[in-house]
Design brief:
single chain, 116 residues, alpha+beta, 4-stranded antiparallel sheet, 20% strand, elongated
Length: 116
């Protein structure tokens, strides 16, 4: 049997599935939690744009450049979605809101202390 610290070990009958990053059993792995709390590298300027490409002509407002972790972005997205009464999601450190919400988002982000 391989050693639990073997980086190539994927499954162990002793511990079940093993995290490929930290080589700990999945139940003890903290890699995902660490990744969720990492701040992205940004230029410091918040950008808001409207996009329809690849969305069957349904427009979405995209907010990126916010210096927030994934968890913080999800909380902000939830607040924005409830404020504007729209749907949306957080993907790769960007917030996507359904519809053209650029003006409302700019006002709300300024109110919350973010520059655009």
């Amino acid at each position: 049997m391989k050693d639990i610290t073997d980086p190539h070990l994927i499954y162990s009958t002793d511990n079940g599935s093993i995290c490929p990053d930290c080589s700990k059993p999945i139940k003890e792995c903290i890699c995902r939690e660490i990744r969720r709390n990492v701040l992205p590298k940004t230029s410091g300027k918040v950008k808001i744009c409207h996009e329809t490409a690849g969305r069957k002509n349904k427009g979405v407002t995209i907010i990126y450049g916010l210096p927030l972790s994934q968890d913080q972005l999800e909380k902000l997205a939830k607040k924005l979605k409830s404020t504007f009464g729209t749907g949306g999601a957080v993907k790769d450190y960007t917030i996507e809101l359904q519809g053209d919400q650029r003006e409302k988002v700019a006002v709300e982000l300024r109110r919350l202390g973010y520059s655009d």
